[in-house]
Write a structure and sequence with these properties.
Layout (H helix, E strand, L loop, with lengths): L10 H12 L2 H4 L1 H9 L3 H25 L6 H9 L1 H25 L1 H8 L7 H18 L1 H26 L14 H4 L1 H11 L19 H30 L20 H10 L1 H26 L1 H8 L18 H17 L2 H29 L15 H15 L3 H22 L8 H23 L6 E6 L4 H13 L6 E10 L10 E4 L23 E2 L2 E4 L2 E4 L1 E4 L21 E10 L2 H11 L4 E5 L13 H8 L3 E6 L8 E5 L7 H14 L2 E8 L5 H17 L4 E7 L3 H9 L4 E5 L4 H7 L2 H8 L3 E6 L1 H6 L2 H11 L1
Parallel strand pairs: 1-2, 1-9, 2-8, 9-10, 11-12, 11-14, 12-13, 14-15
Antiparallel strand pairs: 3-8, 4-7, 5-6, 7-8, 10-15
Helix pairs in contact: 1-9, 1-12, 1-14, 3-11, 4-11, 4-12, 4-17, 4-18, 5-6, 5-17, 6-14, 6-16, 6-17, 6-19, 8-14, 8-16, 9-12, 9-14, 13-14, 15-16, 17-18, 17-19, 17-20, 20-24, 20-25, 22-23, 26-28
Organism: Halorubrum tibetense
Protein name: APC family permease
Membrane topology: Multi-pass membrane protein
Length: 798
């Protein structure tokens, strides 16, 4: 992408920006806080924090060399995880960097108070605002000027800190360092809390990726600059805090040193300089502190301003923020907006508290960075060709993700609440401004969608290839029409074309309540009814040939008898779980019984449970689907059945030529395809796989859906085609494409209170077509799919 930005930041500028972004609050503000949490073990906390930042740094280096463009964290998360997460990362990181920049400008206050004995000639805010205006001007002039300014600051700052360390090492008292590298000395929880508190000290290491578009030879300078600055700064941190612990006495409050100047309690590095070198030591440390904090603020303005600039180029922010200065080749409006935000923060907000809240977001962003790299690697994203490859993939990224969440859990409630507030604001911006302007998605979403599709294909293949018996209970009542009974039986027997099947037709008869009833249900011996076609002359073509034999089924240890049609004419019977060995083309047994009960829906569930049926087939009760608040018989069956359930809306099954199978937002349930394939094979029909996606769906979604359908087509045993439609009115679009189909196989996509309150799209589809419909609910799907997983599947597929 040609942006007009100049690549004029060399290796030294890159290292200086990265070091300057880190060496600030991490050395001059946070050690006092970390000591109060973990004591001398804070030395180990600084070392551990650097190790935990390394996975995100490695991930970011790889992505920066693949996409050397301004935007850094936002760019990689947006490309890897999509615009939604990109918006959260972009806005959140922008505010976080702005907060930290403002904090750095007022963070030198304890040192100024220390030098002046508690008195300042002007307000703290006025000094901070003045410095901020200078830094904003520098960033407007150009990144090359900013880079040279940063190099100068870092050189002077590091020289001062080198003098401090060299003078401090001989003065260190080893007794004060007891437990400084022993995690047991402070306790694991205190160590983790301290590590989380100082974690942000290293956050600046990745800031250089925010200006990757302005770095010359990025494939060389980004890895060297980021890794070199991280190892250098980590070593410097450990040395300095080691000296602080070794030379400063512990005060009565359990903190380092004993500074009696109000407001200067955290200026412990200045106190250490006084103890080591007297007044010159105070001057050296104060100079280093002010330069370090100014350096942090300058790096903050430089890197933070590139986030709205990069977001605007991707239509996630107003396009005016992409304006480039003709004279200085800098994103002037983005810099001015960021500068204005920092000025407002200095003047209005309690910067220290807000910056602590925002620090938790930095950990979350680094977690997302590791996830984004995995998305790029696993998603096989076109054009992703990094010049530098992160080592130990994916273990180091997984380590970074887990470690990040562990640290977040130890930071307390307030930082987490702060991160949640930032996320909520980013979500509001996305849904209020961004969503209607974009039509793309991230690599992660398509990767997860493909993985879900692959898993669904594998489940479907296993179901088709399985040779275990799949037994069906056809439950009919006095209200079921004769045509519906025959059509339900026909669908059930068709499964025998693919699987060994016992089909039990059970007529459930309601009887009045009896006080002294001995059993929950009564099973009666009775001759098969005429509609079942027991006479060979009247039997439909689809009924398996054979003689009538009395089967023996076990129901809770009680022998029940009835009549049977089917098999290959062998005498004797077999129940579900004892398949009859017959010819595969007609390996279906039909059994008939009558059951008296006071509540037929409970009797259906009892019979299905006690006899171990795999599928319960019942007629769809239209009225039940409109009893929204309290539900009805159908809802109860769907919630309590111990097996798969098929609801049959019977409108006739004569002349089957085409069967439409509709995915209910997510992947296809394998049972849908098994039913459709078995029926189509017997009727010599074709299958049409129908799936609806939004009109503005990205190309990757359509391509993934088509590939998913291709895999399913290879499993089916009958001619099958795929239809992926783009529509924002899903029911209307599917109804139109179902068209002249003779049978619709869809799903029960909402049950329980959710379905009663929000309606059932699958039910709406069934009522909008003219053909017979089968609504399938799988037991495994109902039991294993949590609400979160169901939401994610719906979101990814539709």
């Amino acid at each position: 992408m040609v942006s007009g930005l100049k690549r004029d930041l060399g290796l030294f500028s890159v290292g200086a920006i990265s070091i300057g972004a880190m060496v600030g609050s991490g050395i001059f503000i946070l050690p006092a806080l970390a000591y109060r949490i973990a004591g001398p073990t804070m030395v180990l906390a600084f070392l551990l924090a650097g190790v935990l930042v390394l996975p995100a740094a490695l991930s970011k280096i790889e992505m920066a060399t693949a996409m050397p463009q301004d935007g850094g964290t936002y760019l990689y998360i947006e490309r890897g995880m999509g615009p939604l997460f990109g918006t959260i990362a972009g806005l959140g990181t922008w505010f976080s960097l702005s907060f930290k920049g403002a904090l750095a400008l007022v963070g030198g206050v304890p040192y100024l108070l220390y030098v002046l004995g508690g008195d300042l000639p002007v307000s703290i805010e006025a000094i901070a605002i003045g410095i901020a205006l200078v830094l904003i001007a520098l960033n407007l002039v150009g990144s090359d000027v900013t880079g040279r300014f940063q190099v100068g600051i870092v050189v002077v700052m590091l020289a001062a800190m080198t003098i401090f360390v060299v003078a401090g090492i001989p003065a260190v008292e080893s007794s004060r360092l007891s437990g400084s590298f022993d995690p047991r000395a402070a306790g694991s929880l205190s160590l983790l809390e301290a590590t989380g508190a100082v974690y942000v000290s290293y956050a600046g290491v990745t800031k250089i990726a925010s200006v990757a578009e302005e770095i010359e030879n990025p494939s060389r300078n980004i890895p060297l600059g980021m890794l070199g600055s991280l190892f250098f700064t980590g070593g410097l941190y450990v040395l300095i805090v080691w000296v602080l612990v070794g030379v400063l006495p512990v005060n009565e409050a359990g903190g380092l040193a004993n500074i009696g100047i109000p407001g200067a309690e955290d200026a412990i590095v200045a106190e250490a300089g006084r103890l080591l070198l007297g007044t010159p030591g105070v001057a050296i440390v104060t100079l280093a502190a002010m330069l370090a904090l100014i350096s942090t603020a300058n790096a903050g303005v430089l890197s933070a301003s590139r986030y709205p600039f990069a977001m605007a180029r991707d239509d996630l922010a107003p396009s005016s923020l992409t304006e480039i200065s003709d004279r200085f080749n800098t994103p002037t409006r983005a810099v001015m907006l960021t500068g204005a935000v920092i000025l407002v923060m200095i003047a209005v907000f309690p910067i220290l508290q807000i910056a602590k809240l925002a620090s938790a977001f930095k950990i979350l962003v680094f977690v997302l960075i590791n996830v984004a790299l995995i998305s790029f690697r696993e998603g096989a994203v076109e054009g992703y060709d990094p010049d530098w490859i992160a080592p130990l993939y994916p273990w180091i990224q997984i380590f970074g993700i887990v470690a990040g969440f562990v640290l977040l859990s130890q930071m307390g409630t307030i930082p987490i609440v702060g991160a949640v507030i930032i996320i909520a604001g980013s979500l509001a911006w996305y849904y209020g401004y961004v969503r209607k302007r974009i039509d793309r998605e991230g690599a992660a979403r398509d990767t997860v969608r493909r993985n879900i599709g692959d898993a669904a294909v594998e489940r479907t293949r296993e179901l088709f290839e399985s040779d275990t018996e799949y037994d069906v209970l056809v439950g009919v009542t006095e209200r079921t029409s004769e045509r519906a009974k025959r059509d339900m039986l026909r669908v059930a027997t068709d499964l025998g074309r693919l699987r060994s099947t016992v089909v039990s037709v059970v007529e459930f008869l309601d009887i009045p309540h009896r006080v002294f009833a001995e059993d929950h249900v009564e099973v009666h011996d009775t001759d098969p009814p005429e509609w079942l076609g027991t006479d060979a002359d009247d039997r439909p073509d689809w009924v398996p040939h054979g003689s009538v034999n009395p089967p023996t089924l076990t129901s809770g240890g009680v022998e029940v008898t009835g009549d049977s049609i089917g098999g290959n004419g062998d005498s004797g019977g077999s129940g579900p779980g004892d398949p009859t060995e017959t010819d595969a083309a007609a390996d279906t047994r039909i059994e008939y019984r009558e059951v008296d009960s006071e509540d037929h829906k409970r009797a259906m569930v009892d019979v299905a449970t006690l006899e171990g049926y795999d599928l319960l087939m019942v007629e769809r009760d239209r009225a039940d689907f409109h009893r929204r608040l309290f539900g009805g018989e159908t809802d109860w069956l769907l919630d309590n059945a111990p097996c798969d359930v098929v609801l049959v809306e019977d409108r006739g099954l004569d002349g089957l030529d085409e069967i439409s199978v509709v995915a209910n937002r997510g992947a296809y349930d394998p049972v849908k395809l098994l039913l459709a394939d078995a029926i189509a094979e017997e009727a010599d029909a074709t299958i049409n796989l129908l799936q609806a996606i939004p009109e503005d769906a990205p190309d990757t979604q359509r391509e993934t859906m088509e590939a998913y359908h291709t895999d399913l087509i290879s499993i089916c045993t009958v001619p099958t085609r795929s239809t992926v439609i783009e529509t924002d009115n899903r029911i209307e679009g599917l109804t139109r494409f179902v068209g002249d189909a003779d049978l619709l196989v869809t799903g029960v996509d909402r049950t329980g209170m959710t379905g009663r309150l929000l309606g059932r799209p699958g039910n709406e589809l069934v009522e909008s077509v003219d053909c017979t419909a089968l609504m399938v609910q799988t037991h495994d799907g109902r039991e294993s799919r949590s609400r979160v997983k169901r939401f994610l599947t719906d979101y990814l597929f539709a």
